[in-house]
């Protein structure tokens, strides 16, 4: 029997309530972190992930930088409704995974909310972790959310095998090429994360 629309809606609402919340953090919340927030969901085939972004020195209620907006448009993503905000302890604490772009930002996040240390990663570091766990068949979850939590909870075991995480430079007030470089680094990192965390993709890659 085909499920009713109401039943499907209820299941989706329940899944949404338990969605893993991924927070991207940069400095001003108008260049890098909006691109991370907006790009991330487009690499996954699940409604079990929610994304948000903020800045350690975030401007309040500002639109995305025009260069970042242009890059989002080229990706087919409308960023016109985006508005920036500043990171707060409450926002950090309510997130399941925090991804930032430099080691300096990671330290500032942890100083603001010490209890989030274990769930705060450089984006490049988390991509390295996902790649390591995926290539070594160490992820056993059957969905993205469970596999993401596996990486987070077991990160320490892989540290010695990983390359050093790289910062993604702030393109603010720089030429468009700097924004393009940041965009590409963010996109490649997210693609690596999705490759490891999407069970269907991970299985295909391992064959």
Automatic annotation (TrEMBL):
GO molecular function, one term: protein tyrosine phosphatase activity
Active site positions, chain numbering: 26, 32
Keyword Transcription regulation part of the UniProt annotation: no
Alphabetized InterPro entries for the sequence: LMW_PTPase, Ptyr_pPase, Ptyr_pPase_sf, Tyr_phospatase_low_mol_wt
Domain Phosphotyrosine protein phosphatase I: residue ranges: 20-196
Keyword entries, A-Z: Hydrolase, Protein phosphatase
Keyword Hydrolase attributed: yes
Family, similarity comment: Belongs to the low molecular weight phosphotyrosine protein phosphatase family.
Listed name of the protein: Phosphotyrosine protein phosphatase I domain-containing protein
Organism whose genome encodes this protein: Bifidobacterium animalis subsp. animalis IM386
């Amino acid at each position: 029997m085909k499920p009713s629309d109401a039943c499907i809606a209820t299941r989706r609402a329940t899944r949404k309530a338990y969605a893993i919340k991924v927070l991207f953090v940069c400095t001003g919340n108008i260049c890098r972190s909006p691109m991370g927030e907006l790009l991330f969901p487009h690499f996954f085939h699940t409604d079990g992930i929610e994304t948000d972004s903020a800045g350690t020195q975030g401007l309040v209620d500002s639109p995305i930088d025009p260069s970042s907006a242009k890059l989002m448009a080229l990706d087919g993503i409308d960023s016109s409704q985006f508005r920036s905000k500043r990171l707060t302890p409450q926002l950090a604490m309510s997130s399941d995974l925090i991804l930032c772009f430099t080691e300096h930002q990671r330290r500032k996040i942890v100083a603001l909310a010490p209890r989030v240390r274990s769930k705060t990663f450089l984006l490049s570091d988390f991509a390295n972790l996902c790649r390591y766990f995926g290539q070594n068949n160490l992820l056993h979850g059957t969905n993205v959310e469970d596999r993401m939590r596996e990486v987070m909870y077991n990160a320490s075991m892989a540290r010695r095998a990983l390359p050093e995480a790289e910062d993604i430079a702030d393109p603010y007030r720089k030429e468009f090429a700097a924004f393009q470089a940041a965009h590409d680094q963010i996109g490649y990192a997210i693609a690596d994360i999705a490759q490891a965390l999407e069970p269907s993709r991970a299985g295909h890659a391992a064959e």
